[in-house]
Amino acid sequence: MRITRHGDHLVQVTRWAAVFPMNCYLVLEEDGVTLVDSTISSPAADVASEASRLGLELRRVALTHAHADHVGGVAGIRERFPGVEVSIGEREARLLAGDKTPGPGEPQAPAKGAFQKVDWKPDRLLKPGDRIGSLEVVPAPGHTPGQVAFLDVRDRGLIVGDALQTRGGVAVSGVVVPLFPFPALATWHKPTALATAEALRKLEPSRLATGHGDVLEGPADAMNRALEKARRAFA
C-alpha cells in the first residue's frame, strides 16, 4: 500500500502498486473525508489509519463506476464504518445490480469488464451536477455506460475513474497501453470514451487522478497528446 498527498485536499491510496495498481482517493473536507472508489478488496484498515492520522472521520463513499476493482471494497468499508453514505451514478446502479443490457438511446453494446455481485445497495444515486461535499458530479461514460467523474470545485482537481489512465502512459479509455492494457480491454464504447475525455479536458483540471497510475499535476499537455492518439486510434 502506498499513500501520497496531492495539494490540500487529496490523498491517493494505491494498492498492489507493483503488480496491478488500483487507486482510491481520500478527499478531505471540513466535516471529514470522502472516499472515492474502494479498489477490489476492502481498504478499510488503510483508510481508517490515514483518517486517524489526519484527525478526520470517514463520512462518504463515492464510486466512479461499477467495475469490481472500484466497488469491491465497499462491503468492508461499510462493516468498518457503519452508517457511511455510499453513492454511485444513477445509470451505473443498474450494472451494480447485474443488469448489463443497453439502455434506450445508448450504443447497443453490452458492458465489458469484470463486475462483482454485491450484497449491498447504494444509499444515493448521482446525477450530473450533484454535489458530494466539494465534489461536483461530472458525466464520464464510455469505459462503462454510466461512469462519472468528480471535480473538486475548490482547486479543480479531477478524479476520473477509468476515463483515462496514467499507468504506462497517459491514455484515453479504450486505447491499448502495452504496459497496462486492462482498462482498454474493459472499455464499453470507444467513441463515447473519446467524447468524454474531450469534455473532461475542457474542464481545465489542475490535476488528473485516475483509477490506475500516478496523479498528474498540470495535465493539460498530457491530456492533449492522449486525445490526439485516441482520435487516430479510433478513426
> Over all CA atoms, what is the radius of gyration?
16 Å
Classify the beta-strand content into a percent band.
Answer: 25-35%
The strands making up the biggest β-sheet line up spatially as 1-2-3-4-5-6-7
Element pattern in H and E: EEEEHEHHEHEEEEEEEHHEEH
The CATH homologous superfamily is named: Ribonuclease Z/Hydroxyacylglutathione hydrolase-like
Termini separation: 39 Å
- The CATH architecture term is 4-Layer Sandwich
Outline the low-pLDDT stretches. Answer: none
What is the subunit organization of this protein? single chain
Tally the helices: 7
Briefly note the CATH topology name.
Answer: Metallo-beta-lactamase, Chain A
How would a crystallographer describe the biggest sheet?
7 strands, mixed
- What is the β-strand count? 15
Assign the CATH class: Alpha Beta
Mean pLDDT: 96
